[in-house]
Design a protein that fits this description.
A hairpin with a 2-residue loop joins strand 5 (96-104) and strand 6. The chain is an alpha+beta fold and 135 residues long. Helix 1 (9-21) packs antiparallel against helix 2 (25-31). The chain has helices at 9-21, 25-31, 49-62, 122-126; strands spanning 32-39, 45-47, 67-76, 79-87, 96-104, 107-114.
Length: 135
Amino acid sequence: MFGWSKPKPAKVARDYIDAVNARDADRVDALLADDCRFVDSRGEWLEGRANVVEATRNFFELERNFRWHDMKFAMHNGDVLMRGRATADDARLAQDTLWQARVSDGKITHWQSFGAGDPVALVRILLPQEAQVLA
């Protein structure tokens, strides 16, 4: 009867950023598709919601002051493109960066960061047993 629409992709990406900034792994979990992929700035990745949530919890323990700021959003071919600034205790994570998100049915299916300089092997640090490494 009523056609409730799914949240727009940019809103889902904003909600994800808010959840990470709030260090709320349960909210992160609720925003991820079961088959999501998280890709770090080196192009290495994790697959699956459970792995991404576990890595997120590990990240919160490892980096207590990480936050995203001054985020700008644009849409391109259905992807959410973001530009902003990250602050963190670890200087390698505190930089201006680009991100890309893909959203389907109100859930993030793909999240990728594009860091500058010498990117951190974040996936291997957070969940080494599940990391998919470029050959």
